[in-house]
Amino acid sequence: MKIHILISISCLLFISALQSRTIHPILTLTKSGLADIRKNINKAPIFKESYIQIKSDVDEWVKSGVNVPVPKDMAGGYTHEVHKRNFLMLQAAGNVYQISGDKSYALHIKKVFQAYAAMYPTLGKHPAMRSYARGKIFWQCLNDANWMVYASQAYDCIYETLSKSERDNLETNLFRPFADFISIENPSFFNRIHNHSTWGNAAVGMIALVMEDDSLLKRALYGISGMGAISGVDNDGGTIDVNQSAGFLAQLDEAFSPDGYYSEGPYYERYAMSPFILFSQALANAKPELHIFQYRDHLLKKALTSLLNMTDSKGRFFPINDAQKGMSYQSRELIAAVNAIYFYEGQDNALLSIAESQGKVQIDQTGLAVASAIAEHKSQPFVKNSMLFSDGPKGNGGAVSVLRQNVNGFENACFFKYGIQGMGHGHFDRLSYSLYQNQNEILQDYGAARWVNIDQKAGGVYLKENQSWAKQTIAHNTVVVNESSQFGGNTQRGDLYPSQSYYFDVSNPNIQIASAVDTNAYKGVSLHRTLCFLPDESFDQSMLIDIFAVDSDTPNNLDLPFHFGSQLMTSSVDIVVPEVQLKTLGKTDGYQHLWKEGHGIIDSTQYIISWFTNGVFTTQYSLAEKGDEIIFARIGANDPNFNLRRDPLFIHRKRQEKNALFINVISSHGNYNPVDEVPINSYGPKVMIDLLLNNDAYTIAKITTGGKNIYTVMISNKNNTPGQSHSVSINDVTYNWKNAVSVQKIKI
Amino acid sequence: MKIHILISISCLLFISALQSRTIHPILTLTKSGLADIRKNINKAPIFKESYIQIKSDVDEWVKSGVNVPVPKDMAGGYTHEVHKRNFLMLQAAGNVYQISGDKSYALHIKKVFQAYAAMYPTLGKHPAMRSYARGKIFWQCLNDANWMVYASQAYDCIYETLSKSERDNLETNLFRPFADFISIENPSFFNRIHNHSTWGNAAVGMIALVMEDDSLLKRALYGISGMGAISGVDNDGGTIDVNQSAGFLAQLDEAFSPDGYYSEGPYYERYAMSPFILFSQALANAKPELHIFQYRDHLLKKALTSLLNMTDSKGRFFPINDAQKGMSYQSRELIAAVNAIYFYEGQDNALLSIAESQGKVQIDQTGLAVASAIAEHKSQPFVKNSMLFSDGPKGNGGAVSVLRQNVNGFENACFFKYGIQGMGHGHFDRLSYSLYQNQNEILQDYGAARWVNIDQKAGGVYLKENQSWAKQTIAHNTVVVNESSQFGGNTQRGDLYPSQSYYFDVSNPNIQIASAVDTNAYKGVSLHRTLCFLPDESFDQSMLIDIFAVDSDTPNNLDLPFHFGSQLMTSSVDIVVPEVQLKTLGKTDGYQHLWKEGHGIIDSTQYIISWFTNGVFTTQYSLAEKGDEIIFARIGANDPNFNLRRDPLFIHRKRQEKNALFINVISSHGNYNPVDEVPINSYGPKVMIDLLLNNDAYTIAKITTGGKNIYTVMISNKNNTPGQSHSVSINDVTYNWKNAVSVQKIKI
Lengths: 748, 748
What we know:
Two copies of one chain form a homodimer.
Chain A: H1 2-17, H2 31-40, H3 45-63, H4 78-100, H5 103-119, H6 141-158, H7 164-181, H8 187-190, H9 195-211, H10 214-222, E1 231-233, E2 239-241, H11 248-254, H12 266-286, H13 295-309, H14 332-344, H15 351-358, H16 365-375, E3 387-390, E4 399-407, E5 410-418, E6 432-437, E7 440-443, H17 464-470, E8 480-481, H18 491-496, E9 500-505, E10 512-518, E11 525-536, E12 541-562, E13 567-571, E14 581-583, E15 594-601, E16 606-613, E17 616-623, E18 629-635, E19 648-669, E20 687-694, E21 698-705, E22 709-716, E23 725-730, E24 733-738, E25 741-747
Antiparallel strand pairs in A: 1-2, 3-4, 4-5, 5-6, 6-7, 8-12, 9-10, 10-11, 11-12, 12-19, 13-16, 15-18, 16-17, 17-19, 18-19, 20-21, 21-22, 22-25, 23-24
């Protein structure tokens, strides 16, 4: 099937090459789009405001003159930021020229390009040596590709204003050598399946469409032909393996799962969306016969849908893997994606409410369509759903899933991760989850240790603490075996062995279940975690039941961390706190970054810990064995440059267990604000956890909340055949259920 | 003068006692006010919304039945919260009854009062033993007084619906013994100058006005007659000294400075405003001849003005002394104050913009007036000014001052403190300041160590870390001498010796100067700090020049902490960070709560440290001597219950100095947000600090910023005679200026 599509596209390309020359612009902006814009701009206020804002930015840029400095600095430094501003403003100025018709913009763009064309042939590789694929304008080819994706749009916009000799100069001295440099001269950057390469493919493809160079376009779509094998490791620890399919279509095939999930997680999916969307928009305009947006069963729309669903109530992406916290669907990449998918993929009016919250649109025909529809009051709410997104190109690489409930005005969400490693940006965090109430992180994922583009922090690149802390298993809400990270901290092994979805059912919105297993993260250890998400009357919002079984060939030490990241309220376990000195919790695998702030021995079979996060109380009720330990720790040890946040966590530690079972019940409740100073429901209700059965075949537990509800969670540990009936008798009570996991709720 | 006024008021009281009985309600709600409300409610949307909201709360309270449990719990516990809800809802239900005319509300209020009347005679003191003045309904008389301030309004509202025998029952069994209990039976609570006593005075006075009991009213206004001396210390470490003037009028005379500043700081001034405003409103209605709002040259309006000016850009009070952060002019106390001052004190339309941001009004005639004026578009912006507020009843107890500049859309503010101790809630923080950019704390005051009303945290009262950390000098941005707190940590001594304003001039909005001295905080040590607040082009916002001279009889160790509380960006000093263990910085005076995270020796005469706070960069440039030290510390040691925030600070340490001078230049600049990921102006400009002269008589320093501006700061250290001319020659250059401090700005 895939091969068939590829052949079809090759034929179409051949046919289109025979057609007559196009009239520019043809890339992201079109002649017919421009006519619409000029006609309807005053009926589309958001478009007009976006245009005025961009024009004002462009005017300031033009006023500041032509500034094309010799490349020198890392991200965040002067020359980096000037060239970055240049490419963004080149693109914007091109659109402003086309919309306003004011030739002074075209003239300025031409001068800037001529300055680049004069400098480019004189440049060697960028002096900064940090990248596996150094660029010429920037420290890495990736940024050079960014430059060309935007610059090609500017070139398209002024194409018709240039003389043949002017075009020849730019193409000979700048665009063609530039496209060759980031492709055939840097195959380890261009010719693999990776978000970096997608930028490279789009850059080469977009300049090819402007120059109508079909050979370059083929390189962009199918990769460099006749490449030998190259292998290595990139700056982020990702595998470079060039002996495989490559090019833009291969990225669409390989980088996404069939559900539109991108293996590096939403932060990078957001970043990767730009080249996918911009090049696809250019292909849809210049090569409509490719039906690029329909490719792989409307993959790009699915990708956008997955992104919008992997966000908290403020639209911020769940920060799994190497993600900078705070990135959201307000970003320019998502504005472009929402606009393009709306325009090319069936005018889904639910996207308009996202566009409204973005408050800006692209100043092209896609933005006009969105702004006009908003002005016509077509906007519908975008409803986020509980969903599973399979991982891996074939969808068999495990998954991530979101459980969501809106209860009494609270947006509760749990994001559960059990896919593939996610290449160089992946973390060793199989079976971890993060928990949200509205925009509050009740249990957090640390995210990346990086200040993107902030020069003071190692030039804005990944900090060494990203490797030594943020990627390690202890930095996540999942079991650490023998104080070692999953896969021995080896990214390549993590990429080879996905976890697997064991059961997923959200058909009953009030009993949502996700269950997953991993048998590869630790040798000889099976990890099996089941999450049940249920609105409970005693909490007035969603309660999470978290059952985590760890079965090993040999006894192991097990640490289950809870990154509550906020203010401890109470602990039922007596905690001994060191008074005059703090020590680190370990020496490797992230433990060297933890100060041990407190320690307690659990002397009962249940413990309770509660905390307070931005005005919200949360209580956790845990099943324990006497002698288990609680460790309070704080991030920040071995951090000579003060790069890490001093966030707290606690760890439930079991020593030398072969078959361990953690059961945790966690829910937020109540609230408090410093203006009213009145705590509401600051104590969680009474909760009892009874483990009725736990053997190889079955686990059955009973959770009683607030004297009101009893939940019986029944898990078939080995057989997850859909529809399979199970029956177990315990003390004359028979438990019957269907499927791998079932929850029965009884009101007392 | 004061005596004259008191005599007049006594005469008026006597006259009014001869007048005929009033028609209720007469306290905070009046008959004529009710007529206005019924007539205009539909023309005043904010009033109507407030009424609907309150009515809905009251309906829910009525529906839940009469609940008057036997008192048992501390703040945050069940019986505490039920009785607190009761008094708030009694008052609200009274107003709802009067506005709606629905007698079922009056009936419910009567039943609740009858339940209290049945229980009250059976009660001893509250079982919790923590208070210096235990209440009966609550753990402290203070809360009992709160109860009566609100309950008296409810009694007033239903007064006319009750039979004589019903009133007799309530007055005999509840109101009179209640009033006696919180006054003559608890003189250490009632008869001193303190916010607690103000509540007591208002409670007794308000029930007196309803019952028309002039003897009780006199007790409220003038204190208990014929009291002997009582002395002691209250729960907060404040002095109890009952052998002085007392009663409500004495509170107005003694608790405020002539500028309306309240010695405990804005957090407690806000709290204290309720009894002042509510009782004054009742007096203005029931005893208009007292002209209570005009008392002491319109003191209460000045008090409100001081409160509104001591806030950040979100209306949150500067958290000096024992303040819970986040408390703001959105609080119910400030709603009442804004409404009452608007109504009784000249309809200042600038108050309407504050009322708009509060979004609610009182449901009485004052709230109606505000809501109606807003509906008539009379609202004007409330402009916050640079101001000095003298401290102490006579205005000679030092001061606090606010320097403010709005530059390029940034609200810059510096709050400088050099008053009296502020009684039991005062901190040992003379000459400290906090610095704000918009709502961001660039240099913070820690505030109090307390979760108000949160039961889990020691019952919601002050934590022991409030004494051991929050009050100590090292917890503030001011010099600590020999690692000991000011006044040896003795509150009584702090109350005796105010600091003094040395110079204050904000007449030029672009060169604002505040200078203050303290010679009592440390024996044999003179502290003199001068702050200059100036908009600077290189920073694009306000720059603070901070010159702090410490002159001692003998050599001392000096620590100047900077509570930057956020993310360190860079330090020009090499910092050695311990890898495997952290130690505390000291053993007493707050140092036992600090972990020493890093240490460096300054090897030049200037050092630079920069940090990042909620998207804003700040750089500090400091004059130093070689061999001075920088210590990075973090709060949180010796904190067995995890009560303290883990905020960072750094300390500039000088050892064994007799005459030391700290010069710091601090300014925020630029911004960064995680959606755009583009740092703007992330580096501060080049700044040079040259100390030209520093002797007993004069200090002259030259600050050069960004190669653009030179500021010459000239200080006369001994002579601050207003208008005095000074002339100093250094290397053939003569510096001439007038007044104690002057700044000359020259563009290069």
